[in-house]
Amino acid sequence: xxxxxxxxxxxxxxxxxxxxxxxxxxxxxxxxxxxxxxxxxxxxxxxxxxxxxxxxxxxxxxxxxxxxxxxxxxxxxxxxxxxxxxxxxxxxxxxxxxxxxxxxxxxxxxxxxxxxxxxxxxxxxxxxxxxxxxxxxxxxxxxxxxxxxxxxxxxxxxxxxxxxxxxxxxxxxxxxxxxxxxxxxxxxxxxxxxxxxxxxxxxxxxxxxxxxxxxxxxxxxxxxxxxxxxxxxxxxxxxxxxxxxxxxxxxxxxxxxxxxxxxxxxxxxxxxxxxxxxxxxxxxxxxxxxxxxxxxxxxxxxxxxxxxxxxxxxxxxxxxxxxxxxxxxxxxxxxxxxxxxxxxxxxxxxxxxxxxxxxxxxxxxxxxxxxxxxxxxxxxxxxxxxxxxxxxxxxxxxxxxxxxxxxxxxxxxxxxxxxxxxxxxxxxxxxxxxxxxxxxxxxxxxxxxxxxxxxxxxxxxxxxxxxxxxxxxxxxxxxxxxxxxxxxxxxxxxxxxxxxxxxxxxxxxxxxxxxxxxxxxxxxxxxxxxxxxxxxxxxxxxxxxxxxxxxxxxxxxxxxxxxxxxxxxxxxxxxxxxxxxxxxxxxxxxxxxxxxxxxxxxxxxxxxxxxxxxxxxxxxxxxxxxxxxxxxxxx
Length: 635
Fold this sequence. Notes:
About 60% of the residues lie in helices and about 10% in strands. It is an alpha+beta fold.
C-alpha cells in the first residue's frame, strides 16, 4: 500500500467512524417508543436504579453516547443523595459507559481490519491503543475516587473548605511536584498519602500499584508488536517506540522529585511524532483543584483537513506586534520573544477523535492546546488540536432542548441554528475564529514561569486563562478586515456558548468556563448588545452597541494584558467581576447573578426536556429564506 492509497483509506476510515456515530445518535429517536434500539438506554437506567421514563432516557443518552457526566451530577445534587450513594451511581455510570464504548470501538476496529484500510503497523496502533485503554479506564476510576473523593474531600473537611489554607499547607510541607530547577510546578504526577492528618507525596506507581502495572503490561505488548512491524508510510516507527517507552519509564519512576523531568521526556518524544495518528497521554490536570494531579486519559486522534485556509496565525502575529509596539516591547522582551518566536513552531492538527478512554469518557474537548512542560515548549512549543467536523456533527445530531428556548430569545436561536444546519462555510469560519484563535491565544503573553507565579496564592489562573483566550480572539477580530461579514453571527454564537457554560458552576474541572461566561455576559450587558427581561435574554444589535462592546473589551484587555506581563496573581483580575463563595463563584453584577442562579436551578430541573415546539426538520431549504428574513428583522 502506497502513501496515496493509505491516505485515501484514512478518509474511508473516518467516514466509517462517522457512520457508526450516526447510528448511535439515532438512539435519541426511540426514547418515546418501545423499540429494541432503546434497550441500551433502559439497561443503563436499570444499572443505576433510575426510573425508566422519557427524561431519564435522555439522561442515559447524554451519559453513554454524548459522554456528558454533568447532567447526572446535577440530578444527584437535585435529589440531595448521600455522598456514598452518589459516588456509587457515578462509578456505575462510568463503568457502564466504558463497557458500552469498548464494545462499539471493538466493532469499529473489526470493520477496519475486514476492509484492510490500514497497513499492519497502523492497524496495530489502533488495536493496541484500544487495549491499553482498558487499563487506563480502570486507573481513572481508582484515581478519581482516591484523589478527588477521598484526599481532596479530606482536605476540605480539615480546613473547612478554605482553599487558601489548603494551598498554604501544601506549600509549607513541600507536597507539590518540583520542576527542573526545584521550583514548584503547575501540575503533579503524584498523589498524597494520608496518615491521620499527616501527608506525604508519592508517585502513582506507589499509590496505584496494581493499576499502573496493568498499564505497563499492556504497553510492553504494544511496544513488542510495533517492534516487529515497519512503518512504510511515514517512517516514524522509532519515534512511536521512543514515545511508548518514555511513557513506561515515567510511570515506573519511584522518585517523586524526578517525576516532572521524566514526564517532560514523554512530551519531548510525543512532539517528535507528526503522523496523522496522534496518540496522547495523561496531559490534562484540571480535575484536581489543589495539586493539579494529572488525570488518567488516553486517546487517538486522526488528522484530517476541514479548515484549509485558516488565517489565525497571520492575524494573531499582526495584532500581537501592534500591541507590543504600543507598550514598548523592550519592557517585556522575555515574554515577547518567548511567545512570538514559538508561534512558528506550533503543530496544528485538524482532527477527529476516534478512540478515547479514561477521563475522556467524561467529556471530549472541542479543541485543545496541549499543556506541555515549558522546558519542552522552548524547543518544540506545542500541539494544537481542533475537531471542527466532530463538533459540527455533534451539534447537528443532538436534540434541541427546552431550556434554550426558555432563556434565549427565539430570533437569536433561529440565526444560530441556521448557521449550524445550512451555512457550513460560515460555520467553519466562525469555528476558526471562535475556537482556533482561542487555542492560539492561550500561548501568548507568557514566559516559562507565568502560570506558576500567577497561581502562587490562589490557584485560580485557569479561571482567567479561558477568558483571556476568548477575549483576545475578540480583539483580533475587531482589528481584522473581515468584521462586517461575520460580526453579528459571531456575537450570536458567543452569546449561546456563554449561556450553555453556566451549567458548569460546580464542576471543578470546568468551572473556568463558567467564570469566563459570567465575565463575558457582564461585558455584553454593559455594552447594550444583550439585555435581560423576565428571565430571558434578548439581543439588540446596532452600530452604537457594537462600538460599545469593542471599547469595553479593549479596556478590559489592556488591564488583563498587564496582569499577565507583570505575573500578578490571577485573583487580582477575577476580583473585579466575581465574588468567591467558598468554591462557587457568582457575578458581582446583581442582574446577571440573578439570571445565572435562575439558569442553574432551571437546568437542574429541565435540562433533559426536549423542545417539541421546534423540529430539526424545519431547518430545510423551504424555510431558509424565512429564517433569514425574521432574524434580520429582529436583529
